[in-house]
Amino acid sequence: MSAPRRLVVARFLRRPAAVAGLVVIVLFVSVAVLAPLIAPFDPVATSWSAIRKAPSAAHWMGTDENGRDVLSRVVFGARASLLAGVVSVLIAAGIGVPAGLLAGFSGGWIDAVLSRLVDAMLACPFLILAIALTAFLGPDLTNAMIAIGVSTAPRFMRVARAATLEVGSADYVQAAWSIGNPGWRVAVRHVAPNIVPPVLVQATLSLAAAIIAEASLSFLGLGQQPPSPSWGSMLNAAQRFLTQAPWLAVFPGVAIFLCVLSFNLVGDGLRDALDPRGS
Amino acid sequence: MRRRLLTALCALTVLFTAPAVAQTLRIALREDADILDPTLARTYVGRIVFAGLCDKLFDIDEKLQIVPQLALGYEWADPKTLVIHLRPNVVFQDHEKLDAAAVKYTLERHLTLPGSFRRGEISAIDHVEADGPLTVRIVLKAPSAPFIAQLTDRAGMIVSPKAAEAAGKDFGLHPVCAGPFKFTERVAQDRIVLDRFPGYWDASNIHFDRVIYQPMTDTAVQVANLHTGNIDLAERVIPSDVAEVKRDPKLRIVTSPALGYLGITFNLGNGDQSKTPIGQSARLRQAFDAAIDRQALVDVVFNSMYVPTAQAVPSSSPLYVHGLEAPPRDIDKAKALVKQAGVPTPIPVTLMVPNTPDQAQLAEVIQSMVRDAGFDLKINLVEFASSLSAANQGNFQAYLIGWSGRTDADGNLYTFLKTGMGQNDGHYSNPMVDEALDSARTLNDPAARVAQYAKMMEQERKDLPIIYLYQPVNIVGLSAKLTGFRPVPDGLIRLQGLSVTK
Amino acid sequence: MRFGLGGRIAQIVPTLILVSVLVFCLQQLMPGDPALVLAGEERGDPRVVAQIRAELWLDRSLPVQYLHWVGNVAQGNLGYSWRTRQPVSQLVAQKLPVTAQLGVMAFVIAVLIGVPTGVVAAVKRNGPWDYVANAIGLAGLSMPNFWLGIMLILLVSVHLGWLPPSGYVPLSEDVSQSLATTIMPAFVLGNAIAAILMRHTRSAMLSTLDQDYVRTARAKGLSEMWVILRHALRNALIPVVTLGTLELGTLLSGAVLTEQVFSIPGFGKMVVDAVFNRDYPVVQGVVLVTAFLFVVLNLLADILYVLINPRLRRA
Questions:
Q1: CA dihedral in degrees (B482, B484, B490, B491; nearest 10)?
Q2: Are A211 and A256 in contact (CB under 8 A)?
Q3: Could you give the CA distance from residue B325 to residue B312 in angstroms, rounded to a whole number?
Q4: Which residue, A88, A224, B93, C7, could crosslink B182 as a Cys pair with Cβ 3.0–4.6 Å?
């Protein structure tokens, strides 16, 4: 890493938007962790006498089609969405980055084979891959995460490979080669740290995309199993009541929006802070 | 010359008296239709398109009575021989004559074309004879009371032999029938366009020049299109959208009780998944049944529009068993039954549910209701396609599944409850039920058939292989300007008599 | 570039073969017997189901099914839809123009929003304009496609009555109607890509603005505008072009739900319905054609990459 860690933190803290994003994420994470303490009601407790009630003092975000408290469901839904985002990106990066590094650095037939596989996977529409994988694994949250992770992996491999190639032709790497460093040393010491920024950018985008993908799969009925809430499955249920009970669609939608936005802000800040070429 | 003048004058009169010139009717479908060949078609929405394209030998009216369409009438020469008298001077959309030979050809096509979906419906047929140009004799293998009702649906749609012979299996790409509108164009998932067939036998009842069927899967989009006038009629409005449609003075809602039902099928003997407490104990199923509040169920999920039921026969049917009404919730009885069964609570039950939003909500409501009686209901949402395979292979404990319904009650009962039949997914088997179902088929007197069904259902309610929950309602949303719409329980959109008032 | 153009073209074939194998395997893995789905309410009759299996070659082994299909494709025959019996090639021909129109419009919208905001954000780095540009980009990126679509329909069509809520009119029939029916879904699609383009334009601009040759240009006293347009933007466009063609593939994924919400009869809607209906020839055909387009676009991106990047041209 070309910039000392302390400097990176300092740079990050100078960006109000990034810090705000981090605060919101910390907020979301604490909400997810402390959900049972925060939620005013049991998120699965039904009440047939209070179906689709508009927001009120008792139910700040109203009640849903089964008379459950929407606020409590949004609070508990944070668990599913955050988990889905983080786990699927970890899966994707865990597969994609080593593969990309390997392809970009070794070249030759390894690169050719990996690249063709990535081409093939990227050439299939992302959501179709995810849908087919989820259908195969059986619709539930864990399988949705695996499906999203696997379908996202080629993007990481692409980015890691491209960054490796770009860095590989840079002067200081060429210099490292020319003074007789072994291949692995060049890869680990000089190449790997420099592909962190683009991979981070990709991870940011993918976190956002993964949370949205979870919502999309749930929107198609392929995500979280009822009655446990996730923001996506709440939107799925809200579809039928858009005109009569818009709050059912608005609040989970806003929660997704805020959460994803915060990840994006933090990712932006991190990238700039990590960028060795930054001012 | 004189004659030509007369024709021109007539044409002019028609032009000036017709409600409007070049009228197009736009109908929103909830999904895209499948193949437009009456022999090969399978889907419900396909039948709605056929209502414009292909006339049938008989039709049904609002009271499910059989009325003439391409046939003028019928009689039973003996219990196994049905004689049908055809309407004279009917032509197909390719101007070929519709006669007894064409009917014979079509029925034989239903029976022999590879992949035919009509074969099962009319398998009672032994052979068909053309007895003169307008008389058809259908000889059955055994007396069958439900048979005639099959001719009110796709099996009764007569196709042009010339066109069908030329096209073979591709007939569905350019279907030629004897209905009011002829096939013009199809763009998958976008539209099916039919144009008025001037040679239609009942042309005076047709007031549109073109009808366009447009699949719209999103209900919000469908309602939005109704509001903006982009569509004139929506074939199925969901209950939660009804208030929204009614608020618009330009629109109205027409309802009629549907032919189908929704229920929970239990796995009683289909593989390992049947070896559960609830699959093995009728008492537990009775407890499950008693714990469900059907009225609250339809109140919550369907805005009270659907009708609680405890039987598969629709209330509109003359074969409905009166006296078997949906029981109210009795949680004390449910708890007592669970206690008697001696199974420790909570009793785990996995309910397989096709992953549509309303079915998921339904399952959630049931889940919370039966929890009070000691059932731990786990909901397993699966794609519809996967659920079909799982049901067939016995890979389920309980299955929340509906049936679109048939005109004759037999179509809602026989294949689901009789031992060894194809849609008896839970492998239910009771000799008494089998016998009653079989004997009802042979009886032409409705009262005698109802007696058999009543006997059968009494037993069914004890065994509970299927817990029937509710009967849906057809909800059609249409422009207030459209008049002459007839709500028939089968939910099809009949175009005869439908017109626009200014 | 380690392969010449000929080599790259030769790579298309193995990629497409891999795609087809991938799709075939995934289908095989999916539960839900297509014969049962096709049998519909007649699924109870084992004879019907067996007959369907035989007719569709579903009773053969997977390699035999695969080779049968590949053999037909090699002869230009993509098969026919199991559900409607329409030839897949006809379905593709009907729907490709729809999605292509949507894609081009979405991409134009994305470039119009993404590139200028990206340049502004980079040049006015850390200033208020950077934040504004960022906010625009991030807001678009952070909204689920289908959610934005539904909200737009409710607002623009239902409440304001400005645009038709859904449906599609082909360009050939009526240009203004066609644009009216596609502008909302194109905006929904383009909006998400705009954010990605903006972010990459910004970061690419930032790094090129710091490069020696840009510094040199500045030092030579060239005007700031000239430096940005002539040197920085040109180089910053390299990743943008590559990404743009990549995003065209993503577009189809986005189109899946967007077309669903707006009832646009395009590729995305067709393929999702086909997956749920287990209409495998349609899934295979559509994915293969998509993959082909995607690979060709990628090749185009690589060629552009070399054309724009002088350093690579020399290598």
A1: 0
A2: yes
A3: 11
A4: B93
Domains of chain B are 2-30+180-258+474-500 (3.40.190.10), 58-164 (3.90.76.10), 261-471 (3.10.105.10)
Let me know: does C13 contact A119? Beta carbons within 8 Å: no
Indicate the helix (H) or strand (E) that contains A155: helix A141-168
Interface-testing mutation among A28, A110, A122, with chain C (most C C-beta atoms within 10 A): A122
- Start-end of H helices in B21-86: 44-53
Q: Dihedral sign, CA of B121, B126, B130, B134? A: negative
Residue environment code for B168-183, b if the CB has 16+ CB neighbours within 10 A, otherwise e: ebebbbbbbbbbbbbb
Q: Is the pLDDT confidence value at B255 over 90?
A: yes
Check CB contact of A97 with chain B, cutoff 8 Å. Answer: no
Say which range, B260-264, B487-491, C53-57, C203-207, has the weakest mean pLDDT: C203-207
- Do the Cβ atoms of A243 and B358 come within 8 Å? no
Output the pLDDT for position C49: 81
**CA–CA min distance A277, chain C (Å):** 7
C-alpha pair distances (Å), A235 with each of A74, A225, A249, A250: 11, 13, 5, 8
Contact state of A138 with B382 under an 8 Å Cβ cutoff = yes
Is B64 or C243 the better-scoring residue by pLDDT?
Answer: B64
pLDDT, one tens digit per residue, over C147-202 is 888 788 778 877 787 887 777 778 887 888 888 888 999 999 888 788 778 877 88
* Each residue's pLDDT tens digit, B133-192: 999 999 999 999 889 999 999 999 999 999 999 998 889 999 999 999 999 999 888 899
Query: What gap in Å lies between CA B324 and CA B127, rounded to an integer?
Result: 39
Closest chain B residue to C152, measured at CA:
B221
For a pLDDT cut of 90, what percent of chain C falls above it?
2
Cα gap A249→A52, rounded to integer Å: 12
From A67's Cα to the closest Cα of chain C, the distance in A is: 23
Burial class (CB in 10 A: 0-12, 13-18, 19+), B394: middle
Q: How far, in Å, CA of B250 to CA of C53, rounded? A: 49
Rounded CA separation B246/B253 (Å): 7
Mutate to test the interface with B, among C263, C269, C276, C283 (most CBs of B within 10 A): C263
DSSP B251-291: EEEEEEE-S-EEEEEE-SSSSGGG-SHHHH-HHHHHHHHHH
Q: Which value does ipTM take for this structure?
A: 0.75
> Which of B357, B364, B365 shows the shortest C-beta gap to A239?
B357
The Cβ of residue B34 has, within 10 Å, a number of other Cβ atoms equal to 25
Computed on alpha carbons and rounded to an integer, the radius of gyration of chain C in Å comes to 24
How many whole angstroms separate alpha carbon A77 and alpha carbon B413? Answer: 42
Beta-bridge mates of residue B91: B97
**Cα nearest neighbour of A248 on chain C:** C147
Find, among B180, B182, B206, the residue nearest to B192 by Cα: B182
B contacts of A226 (beta carbons < 8 Å): 360, 363-364, 367, 379, 381
Amino acid letter for position B135: T
Among A13, A117, A124, the strongest candidate for a mutation testing the C interface, having the largest count of C CBs within 10 A, is: A124
Chains that touch B (3 or more CB pairs under 8 A): A, C
Instruction: Give the C-alpha separation, B124 to B147, whole Å.
Output: 7
How many Cβ atoms sit within 10 Å of the Cβ of residue C97?
A: 14
pLDDT at B375 over 90: yes
Q: Does B72 touch chain C (CB under 8 A)?
A: no
Whether C139 sits inside 8 A of A127 (CB atoms) is no
The Cα B185–Cα C124 span in angstroms is 56
